[in-house]
Amino acid sequence: MAVETEINAITAVHNIGALSLETSPLKTALKSEAASWKAQFALNLHKQGSEDLKTFDSYIRDTTLKLNRKIEDLEDVRGIMAVLKEVRAVCVCVCMCACLFVTVRLGLFPVRGCTVAVPGCQLVIALRCTL
Predict the structure, then answer these.
(1) Can you list the alpha helix ranges (DSSP code H) found in the chain?
(2) pLDDT at 116
(3) How many other C-beta atoms are found inside a 10 Å radius of the C-beta of residue 49?
(4) At residue 55, what are phi and psi to the nearest 5 degrees?
(5) Which uninterrupted H or E stretch holds 19?
(6) In whole angstroms, what is the distance from residue 110 CA to residue 100 CA?
(7) pTM score, two decimals?
């Protein structure tokens, strides 16, 4: 939004002695370039956020499968305890770094004025429900 404001603040005509420069074609090109940059930024941000979200979702699913194994002997208990130890070790990091980071990234779209269809939002909603 600030870029468009700065572009609009450029005067339409600059007079330098006998030379008169019309800036409207340049302003139009700059506005178009800013809009395409925003769209590309949004797509790149969405792609990276989507990959991070898929990685996090995969970690949650894998850990859930490990924890849902049937316990039949002491070795199974040791395995479950090892998984729980791992979960405790990475829990804070996963919650803060992955989930919040992804939701903040996806939340940047409306703030930056980018309109991109975000199919990953359903995974974010599901993750919020499970945390």
Answers:
(1) 2-9, 24-67, 74-93, 101-111, 121-130
(2) 47
(3) 22
(4) -65, -45
(5) strand 19-22
(6) 17
(7) 0.55
